[in-house]
């Protein structure tokens, strides 16, 4: 057992700790109370009266937490907007940037774009400093997810009157959003059309250099960057190494490493991880493992991601013994395998339909304290359904609820299918209620599946109870994007379309 070294800071009287715990508990209770008011109120007037009579002090911190919970539980966006405006109307009160961005995210997710722009206009009049580059990314991210590239660019232009400085940082935010929500081709087309209105910097090129499909395109863009007098850094070179490795041009990737060293730019762990992945693509997993040793000679030590790349190579080659050997080596080096490490093995076991190995690996994860992520859970739950293993599925769900990992929504859809197919209505109802208690909304498909079984079993009271609990999440207002912005068929456009 490790003993803590004595220091005066360790001598905290228990009496000072209790109020802190009570304060945290009271704060959580207040968040839950306000969230329930938002979810259950039918009108704006009812919402205001309930908030006034609740006795809860609506501080910035509490509002931040309430809005955060609304976001992750998919609560009623219309009533949440009423709550946001009610609290903002108080004399001398100003929302935080976090609250504004979260509220905009909630509205954008529900496609309530007219309210998004109204709220931004209100924020500009009251406190323009709240509208930041992050705000721009939040709004553009939601627009880009459901609207066309042109509509996204039009939305970007509207920010010219909203932000204090419409500069290269804003331009970079647009490009990053297009990379994430549309395609790299869209981002590069927009760059070429709008670059003359901004001054592209190193960050601009680093955003655009990621994800290239062909080395020829990357080389051309790299030359344009140099012609504009922008000096590449390690991130820039890593993008070039990555595209060469993905294109299986390993010799060119090694030449980039030499150029980096000639320019006194030290290749980092990301550089070597790309090389390891590239060697795996050309069927040289043993040489890739050698890179782990080679990089140490240059003073760069492999991290978990580097080991995962080498492990992936052996998993693809079906050499699981060597893959497990690298996991053991990681542990010896003081590195802890993460969920991504285990997913490499889960994928092999899933496609080979190896239930026992998957279950053993899952138990090993739990013993070692490495919580699975959503991908791990999906590999497992689909395998359990394939083999009709109800007990294993319920064990996984119980761990998810108890320890808080994985996506309840994605896993529950498969779980409810399994339970309903096996006639386990009681278990399905229990899991359904656990999900709601966690503030997570089950899918409508799962609800309809359970509803049919309850009706057949004449469990009308239980069905009515579930229906009432589902009503807490409300029904988001679905507004087609064409009603909020110019009508256009979503999709990629050529560069000249943005002029």
Automatic annotation (TrEMBL):
InterPro entries: Mito_RNA_Proc_CCM1, PPR_rpt, TPR-like_helical_dom_sf. Belongs to the PPR family. P subfamily. The keyword Repeat applies. One of its GO terms (biological process) is mitochondrion organization. GO terms for cellular component: mitochondrion. It holds the Pfam family PPR_3. This is Pentatricopeptide repeat-containing protein At1g02420 family. Residues 480-499 have a biased composition (Polar residues). NCBIfam families: PPR. One of its GO terms (molecular function) is mRNA binding. It comes from Cajanus cajan (Pigeon pea). The keyword Repeat applies. The lineage of its organism: Eukaryota, Viridiplantae, Streptophyta, Embryophyta, Tracheophyta. Residues 478-499 are annotated as: Disordered. PPR repeats lie at residues 233-267, 268-302, 303-337, 338-372, 408-442. Keywords: Repeat.
């Amino acid at each position: 057992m490790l003993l803590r070294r004595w220091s005066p800071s360790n001598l905290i009287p228990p009496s000072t700790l209790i109020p802190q715990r009570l304060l945290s508990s009271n704060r959580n209770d207040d968040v839950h109370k306000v969230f329930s008011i938002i979810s259950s109120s039918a009108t704006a007037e009812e919402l205001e009266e309930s908030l006034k009579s609740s006795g809860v002090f609506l501080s910035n911190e509490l509002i931040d937490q309430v809005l955060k919970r609304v976001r992750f539980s998919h609560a009623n966006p219309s009533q949440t907007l009423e709550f946001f405006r009610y609290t903002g109307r108080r004399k001398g009160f100003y929302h935080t940037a976090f609250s504004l961005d979260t509220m905009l995210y909630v509205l954008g997710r529900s496609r309530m774009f007219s309210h998004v722009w109204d709220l931004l206009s209100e924020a500009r009049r009251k406190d323009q400093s709240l509208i930041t580059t992050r705000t721009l990314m939040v709004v553009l991210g939601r627009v880009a997810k459901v609207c066309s590239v042109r509509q996204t660019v039009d939305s970007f232009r509207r920010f010219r009157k909203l932000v204090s400085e419409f500069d290269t940082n804003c331009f970079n935010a647009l490009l990053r959003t297009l990379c994430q929500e549309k395609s790299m081709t869209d981002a590069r087309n927009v760059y070429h059309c709008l670059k003359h209105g901004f001054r592209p910097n190193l960050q601009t090129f680093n955003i655009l250099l990621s994800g290239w499909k062909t080395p020829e395109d990357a080389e051309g863009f790299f030359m344009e960057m140099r012609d504009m007098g922008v000096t590449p850094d390690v991130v820039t070179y890593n993008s070039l190494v990555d595209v060469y490795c993905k294109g299986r041009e390993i010799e060119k990737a090694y030449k980039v490493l030499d150029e980096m060293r000639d320019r006194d730019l030290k290749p980092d762990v990301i550089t070597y991880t790309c090389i390891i992945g590239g060697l795996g693509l050309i069927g040289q997993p043993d040489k890739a493992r050698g890179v782990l040793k080679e990089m140490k000679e240059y003073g760069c030590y492999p991290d978990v991601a580097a080991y995962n790349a080498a492990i992936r190579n052996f998993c693809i080659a079906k050499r699981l013994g060597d893959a497990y050997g690298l996991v053991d080596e990681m542990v010896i080096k003081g590195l802890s395998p993460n969920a991504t490490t285990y997913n490499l093995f889960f994928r092999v076991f899933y496609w080979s339909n190896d239930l026992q190995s998957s279950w053993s690996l899952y138990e090993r994860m739990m013993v070692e304290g490495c919580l699975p992520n959503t991908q791990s859970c999906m590999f497992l739950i689909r395998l359990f359904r394939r083999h009709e293993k109800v007990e294993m599925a319920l064990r996984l769900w119980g761990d998810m609820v108890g320890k808080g990992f994985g996506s309840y929504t994605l896993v529950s859809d498969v779980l409810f299918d399994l339970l309903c197919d096996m006639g386990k209505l009681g278990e399905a109802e229990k899991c359904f209620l656990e999900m709601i208690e966690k503030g997570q909304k089950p899918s409508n498909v799962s609800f309809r599946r359970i509803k049919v079984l309850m009706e057949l079993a004449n469990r009308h009271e239980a069905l009515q109870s579930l229906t009432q609990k589902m009503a807490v999440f409300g029904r988001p207002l679905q507004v087609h994007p064409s009603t909020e912005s110019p009508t256009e068929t979503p999709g990629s456009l050529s560069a000249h379309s943005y002029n």
